[in-house]
Amino acid sequence: MSTILDPFQLPSLPLAERKKLPDCAAIYFAIDANNRVLYVGKAKKLVARWKNHHRLYKLEEIDKECSVRIAWQAWNEEDLDEAERSSIKRFQPLLNNTEVETPTVVPSEVVLRDFLKTFSRRLIIIGIEPKTPDRLLNVHLKYDWKDCSAKGTAAKIKEYIKQNQNQNTSLKFKRHRYSNFNLFAGEVFRPGSREQRTRARQHRSFNNHWEFACNGVVIHITPTDDFQKYKNQSQVVKLAGVNFRAVIEEVFVDVEKNTNYELSGLSCFTSDPVPLLWLNS
């Protein structure tokens, strides 16, 4: 098989659509919008090769400024080495035989502490579920959902997560639906009416359960109607080394007398459960 290839005439896909590459042995070319050959490689299974390509980080960085596409030519497996060497020699791609760049990893506790500092005045610890053989220790935080504006806590948390979603860290925010607000919200309003739009904002503010884990501790954030009441019955503690307010122990004594479903099954938060591995490193 001839090893002379014209990558600019080959079938190609945008870098972001690499999952659609064929499952075949191939010679491939990463090419930018200026028709610069950035990288030449070989693969026995092309789509599998691009699931976790060692040059992906750098190519994605380039793609932000100058779109990158992957061109390919199906090839006999036994001739891949020769075709790759020939194409590298001919096109002198920019990234072949250069140091592989990888993204900086941000420790999960650094991300956690930044989040907690940002929202320390908007969240309150209501209690913990102690660690068991089958479950990590869980810390439960509450926010006041009644501010449904763009400056409300729910909106700000969503904005924070969106702004930081590309960080290379093991701490990942998972969002679940908390409950169907409309089940107990009362009257149903005419679609498009002011009242209906208000109800929709309330639903977006209320219907959130964020969950994330760091250093063996799982943290939950859910809405409450009683944020101010909890705040009035709280004290300053540390969570991941950050000053935070937590509901005091006396409140849990009262739970035995007065039903409070939010505190049911929880214990009082008494000491910081998050070990800090990077704080002083």
Q: Can you give me a brief rundown of this structure?
A:
This protein has about 280 residues and is of the alpha+beta class. About 25% of the residues lie in helices and about 25% in strands. The protein has two domains: about 10-90, GIY-YIG endonuclease, CATH 3.40.1440.40; about 110-255, no CATH class.
Name the descriptors.
281 residues; alpha+beta; GIY-YIG endonuclease; four-stranded antiparallel sheet; GIY-YIG_endonuc_sf; Excinuclease ABC C subunit domain protein
Structure description:
This protein is α+β, with helices and mostly antiparallel strands. It has 2 domains: 9-91, GIY-YIG endonuclease; 108-255, no CATH class. 27% of the residues lie in helices and 24% in strands. The chain is built from 8 helices and 11 strands. The protein has helices spanning 46-49, 56-65, 80-91, 108-119, 153-163, 194-206, 227-232, 249-255, and strands at 12-14, 26-32, 37-43, 68-74, 123-129, 137-144, 174-176, 209-214, 217-224, 234-239, 242-247. The strands form 3 sheets. It has a 5-stranded mixed sheet. Strand 2 (26-32) and strand 3 (37-43) form a beta hairpin.
